[in-house]
Structures are given as structure tokens and as C-alpha cells.
Amino acid sequence: MDLVGALFIFCARLLDVPLGTFRILLLVRGKKLQAASTAFFESAIYLMALGYVLQQGVRGWLQIVAYAGGYAVGNFLGATLEEKILSGFVLVEAVAPVTDEMLETVERLRDEGFGTTVVTGSGKTGERMILKIICRRHDIGHVAKIIGNKGFVFASDVKAVWGGYFRQKRK
User: Fold this and answer.
1) CB contact set of 148 (below 8 Å; sequence gap of 6+)
2) How far apart are CA 151 and CA 40, in angstroms?
């Protein structure tokens, strides 16, 4: 196999793998028609690459590296594109003991523009505050820094958002 063939395989995998990631994200968000369209192109590109490999046969390390390398870089590219293109909203929840420090954390979140709803709950060792913060995906790190290690924190994707209070972009 020549270098051009290896480059073709690498580039084909570099395209079809991120499309697969993108398609799954579309499905999770309920965008069936867009996911189906993406699946068409994903499978067409995959079949071209696979057909080329099967037609030429696995003859050496260059072909294996091109196929596996394209797959690996394609996964990285897919994850990166997901962060950039589908950077929607997430729900960050923090479950922590009711303390003055946590009340200050709630005020800081609100002061920095994050709509924060507090619900009271009951945990194994007593009363808990459950903070619910809907923010943009790129704000997760900032919210996590404010909350620190004061409780159990997790984030989950949000399918749709309307109403409420959202942080405005700062200049």
C-alpha cells in the first residue's frame, strides 16, 4: 500500500468517526431527522474506507496505523467538536450540608450571574442543601471552582431550556 492510500484511509476515518459522535449526540437531544442525515454520510464514508482496506488487503503496518490512527484522532476531534458546536446547557447539582459556607457559596454563584435554586433535602447524616444551577457547558469549570469540594457535585445534559435566569456574557 502506498502513502496516498494510507492518507485516504486516515482522512476517511477522521471524517466518519466524528460524524458518529455527532450523530449520537443528535439522537440524545431528540433530533432524529438530523441524526438520520448524519448517519447516511457517516456510513458512506466508512464504507469507502473499509472497501479500500478490504480491496487492498491488510499488507503492512502503515495501513493499520492509518486506520487506527484515523479512528483515534477522529474520536478526539469528535469530542472537541461536541464541546464547541453542541455547547448547550447543563444542569450542575451540588448536594452539601447546610452550613454558613454553603450559604456564602450560593450568594457567590448568584453574584457571579448564575441562577441558583436551592432545595432542602435529607441525607444520611442530616439536612442537605441541593443546589441546582443551569449554565452553559463552558461554564462548568467556573461553577465547579466556586463550589469546590464542599459537597457531592454532578452535571448532566439538559435537552431544552426556557424561562428562568441565565448568566449574561461579561465584557
Assistant:
1) 105
2) 44
CA distance 140 to 162: 19
Handedness of CA 133, 138, 139, 140 (dihedral sign): positive
Give the gyration radius of the chain's Cα atoms.
Answer: 23
Using an 8 Å Cβ cutoff, are 98 and 163 in contact?
no
pLDDT in tens, 37-82: 999 999 999 998 888 878 877 677 888 898 899 999 999 998 888 7
Containing H/E element for 128?
strand 126-136
**Distance between CA atoms of residues 52 and 127, nearest Å:** 62
Query: How confident is the model over 133-146, as pLDDT tens digits?
Result: 988 888 999 999 99
**Direct distance between the N- and C-terminal alpha carbons of the chain, in angstroms, rounded to an integer:** 54
Report the alpha-carbon distance of residue 80 to residue 158 in Å, rounded. Answer: 19
Q: 5 near 65, Cβ under 8 Å?
A: no
* CA distances for 35 relative to 29, 40, 43, angstroms: 10, 9, 12
